[in-house]
Amino acid sequence: MDFKAVLTDALASASGLEAQDIGPMIETPANPELGDLALPCFKLAKTFRKAPALIAAELKEKLGYVEGFSRIEAVGGYLNFFTDKSAFARTVISRVLTQGDKYGSSDEGAGRNVCVEYSSINIAKPFGIHHITTTVLGNSLKRIYDHLGFHTISINHLGDWGTQFGKMIVAYNLWGDREKIENGNSMRELVALYVKFHEEAEKHPELNDEARAAFHRIEMHEPADWALFQWFKDVTLKDVAKVYDLLGITFDSYAGESFYEDKMPAIIKELEDKGISKVDKGMTIVDLSEYDMPPCIILKSDGSTIYATRDIAAAKYRKETYDFYKSLYVVAYQQNLHFRQFFKVLELMGYEWAKDCVHVNFGMISMEDMTFSTRKGNAIYLEDVLNTAIEKTLHIIEEKSPNLENKEEVARQVGVGALVFSVLYNNRIKDYTFSWDKSLNFDGETGPYAQYTYARSCSVLRKAAEADKGGACAAAIDYSVLSDDASAALLRAIDTLPEAIRAAAEKYEPYLISRKVIEICSAFNKFYYDNRIMDDDAAVRAARVALTKAAGIAIRVGLFLVGLEAPERM
Ligand code: ARG
After folding, report:
1. With bands split at pLDDT 50, 70 and 90, how would you rate the model's confidence at 374?
2. Is 220 helix (H, G, I), strand (E, B) or coil?
3. Is the distance from CB of 85 to CB of 488 less than 8 angstroms?
4. Which atom of ligand 1 is the closest one to the Cα of 331?
5. Theoretical Cys-Cys bridge with 260: which of 240, 253, 313, 373, CB 3.0 to 4.6 Å?
6. Confidence class for position 377, pLDDT limits 50, 70, 90
7. Residue 360 to residues 114, 331, 427: CA-CA distances in angstroms?
8. pLDDT single digits (tens) 34-72
């Protein structure tokens, strides 16, 4: 039973308004004492030219009894609706059990493509802790949009173009060790070469000229240099795959900046032909002073393209290739201006789809404890942080559950999950300080707490299956036993997960889901302590077991959408 739909119809006939108008006015009050659903009647004051309190009273009168609701109250301009507890329990539980891992999914995105660009690492630069937010936020958004029926295309817009690759060629030819790079931590070896180049170039400035010449050879696709350039990318991607594997992240495309190099001339010509760009002090720019922004540089005075030029080409390519409904760029807020500029340029080019390009920005992350493994270059590698998380978790598990079978595997799921969950537990724009103690706390608002709660629900179900081998499992469920406060709060938390998923997609805020997961978990734990799940009465037991199962599914779905695995034993 869809309570909202039933209520919408009843309210439409009582008010004489269209269902499509009154439906969206129905809210879920934050405080359950104000009903499971509510209609704020001040929204109707204009239409009916009456005081909200009077409208509420009259509507209550006209509604009389509404199926599925046990009580309707008119209070202070609000109409509050209380669902019939048994009917509500039956509805929520059967919905979750029928949908399983598809709980909260929909087909509203069917036939529409969404590009989600995230991670977007730079070749021969560290894949550091500062990249974690774009990586996990993007992955979560991809999963959320997939869940809502959209077809997503995940893109890692590699930073793989620019004069630094000339430097890399020079450095490699002088000091590189192929074997060491291929068999070790390739990215770190390449970063070390890059650092060495800068040290040496201080003393021997002519190295910079050599680097420029080398980059020119890459631009000309000189076979030896081009091969080396590709190899830098290949070994880096192979190296970072370790991090993506730990996180369970994949990409549909690694088309980075270099991919757009041959698409530059057409963009430059188009900007010229449309009269948008102009030459200023030898540079080709798009003047944006009218929009209170500095000019967007298209070509530097030496004729080379820049980051923004490639982004313009990439946006156009994505539209042509994927015909996106939306194109998301999960990139730190430091680049706010860059995105505003090039989105504006797209708009000036006459692309109405520029409005569908969204910069999903986010704040900075810092580590509370910087002391571990800050190797040369001050970079904290994400791989090190993940491995530290796994190690620390393994210690905790060894203490807490020494008999657990697959400790290493669980330590990976929980350690990585702790990190991911803590990054996605707050509004994305807030700067964030990561703390090991907080993130790994099994009793806090953390990934491990949610995973632990899920594992607890699995253990309840295992015990129930064991106890009910005789077949009592099949007992008819007595939903009326789920009307105590703890059960009702749990049902309500589970029931509002789909709303949280939709809101997360709309606002690009996975934390709305992680918070809901924690709400479900604490409600489940309260339910677990307040009630005897393995009650002697088979119908009572069946009801509580069913609710446990529904809670577990909801937690697992929520965890998956923010990017966490859910081990069944911990
Ligand atoms: N590689 C860039 C960096 O690490 C981020 C790329 C962002 N995406 C884009 N389309 N500009 O800063």
Report:
1. very low
2. coil
3. yes
4. 7
5. 313
6. low
7. 13, 6, 12
8. 999 999 999 999 999 999 999 999 999 999 999 999 999
Residue 289: is its pLDDT beyond 80? yes
Which CATH number is 383-561 given? 1.10.730.10
* Residue 528 Cβ < 6 Å to ligand 1: no
Any atom of ligand 1 within 6 Å of the Cβ of 329? yes
Asked if 125 and 162 touch (Cβ cutoff 8 Å), the reply is no
Atom of ligand 1 nearest to the CA of 338: 11
Closest CA to 317 of 273, 253, 361, 269: 253
Ligand 1 centroid, distance to 331 Cα (angstroms): 7
Any atom of ligand 1 within 6 Å of the Cβ of 159: yes
H or E, element range at 366: strand 365-367
Query: 141 phi and psi, to 5 degrees?
Result: -60, -40
- For a mutational test of ligand 1's pocket, the pick from 319, 335, 345, 361, i.e. the residue with the most ligand atoms closer than 8 A to its C-beta, is 335
The response to whether residue 311 sits with its C-beta less than 6 Å from ligand 1 reads: yes
Substitution candidate for ligand 1 out of 331, 333, 345, 364 with most atoms within 8 A of CB:
331
Dump pLDDT digits (tens) for 301-345.
988 889 999 999 999 999 999 999 999 999 999 999 999 999 999
Q: What mean pLDDT do residues 453-477 have?
A: 83
pLDDT digits (tens, 9 = 90+) for 114-140: 999 999 999 988 899 999 999 999 999
Q: What is the pLDDT of residue 470?
A: 58
Backbone angles phi, psi at 358, to 5 degrees: -125, 125
Distance CA 108, CA 330 (A): 23
Token reading at 175: 């000091």
Q: Which secondary structure element, helix H or strand E, spans residue 224, and what is its range?
A: helix 223-247
- Distance from the CA of 117 to the center of ligand 1, in angstroms? 9
Please name which of 113, 174, 175, 176 lies closest in space to residue 148, comparing C-alpha atoms: 113
Q: Provide the sign of the torsion angle of the four alpha carbons 541, 543, 545, 548, taken in this order.
A: negative
Token output for 357: 């390009």
Q: Identify the pLDDT of residue 276.
A: 96
Q: Which atom of ligand 1 is nearest to the CA of 339?
A: 11
At residue 13, does pLDDT exceed 90? yes
Residue 484 confidence class, pLDDT cut points 50, 70, 90: very high
Residues 6+ apart with CB under 8 A from 506: none
CATH of 3-83, one of 3.30.1360.70, 2.40.30.20, 1.10.3720.10, 3.40.190.10: 3.30.1360.70
Q: Is 189 in the pocket of ligand 1 (CB under 6 A)?
A: no
If one residue of 119, 120, 236, 259 were mutated to test the ligand 1 pocket, choosing by the most ligand atoms within 8 A of its CB, it would be 120
Mean pLDDT for the stretch of residues 218-234? 96
Which two structure tokens, joined as six digits, stand for 145?
Answer: 């949009």
